[in-house]
Amino acid sequence: DGGITQSPKYLFRKEGQNVTLSCEQNLNHDAMYWYRQDPGQGLRLIYYSQIVNDFQKGDIAEGYSVSREKKESFPLTVTSAQKNPTAFYLCASTLTGMNTEAFFGQGTRLTVV
Amino acid sequence: DQQVKQNSPSLSVQEGRISILNCDYTNSMFDYFLWYKKYPAEGPTFLISISSIKDKNEDGRFTVFLNKSAKHLSLHIVPSQPGDSAVYFCAAPTGRGSTLGRLYFGRGTQLTVWP
User: Fold this and answer.
1) Prior bond to B79 cis, omega within 30?
2) Hey, are the CB atoms on A99 and B97 less than 8 Å from each other?
3) pLDDT tens-digit profile of A55-111?
4) pLDDT tens, residue by residue, B21-52
5) Do A41 and B107 count as a contact with CB atoms less than 8 A apart?
6) Angle at the Cα of B49 (from B11 to A4), degrees rounded to 5?
7) Which end of chain A has less neighbouring CB within 10 Å, N or C?
8) A87 to chain B: nearest residue by CA?
């Protein structure tokens, strides 16, 4: 079955450490996205990538980094520079083209301890 | 700057009645809109969409209405069921042609359907 997979589902990090969240899709989608969800804030875009080896900052990119070396993979690194990293992180992918929907992974809950 | 707005953070409806979730947008270039449903600790799932060439799209119990002049859309759920209790997000993509661009999301509306 095709889909988009995020791992791990729960992640704990000590303050000052970098951590990488995995996102893999086998839908042959061109574009991939990372969102962050906080209570009352909806979904805020961190980074997105429309093609391999290219990505753009979203609305809240500070303290995050990404790479897109393969079409299937779009890992997100939460760096120690991110001041409030505890959140629910969602990865999504879409085909490019008009009138298409985004498919989401199941999310990763990151908690800084 | 919120380009997609959901001004009601919550809505409570009795089972069997109609649920109406509202969404407003500011960007007149938006020409396609999507609704997503999200349960706690899960990713959103696509529910229904509408293109700006239509003013209504129906799928079973779910109907989305688009009023372009008012830059407003609404999702109607009839009849509402307890399993519909979730957060509903309105979204709109930028980009045209072969470039999808990014999705703008509203802040979501928590729907609670009670027996």
Assistant:
1) yes
2) no
3) 999 999 999 999 999 999 999 999 988 889 999 999 999 887 666 788 999 999 999
4) 999 999 988 889 999 999 988 999 999 999 99
5) yes
6) 95
7) N
8) B41
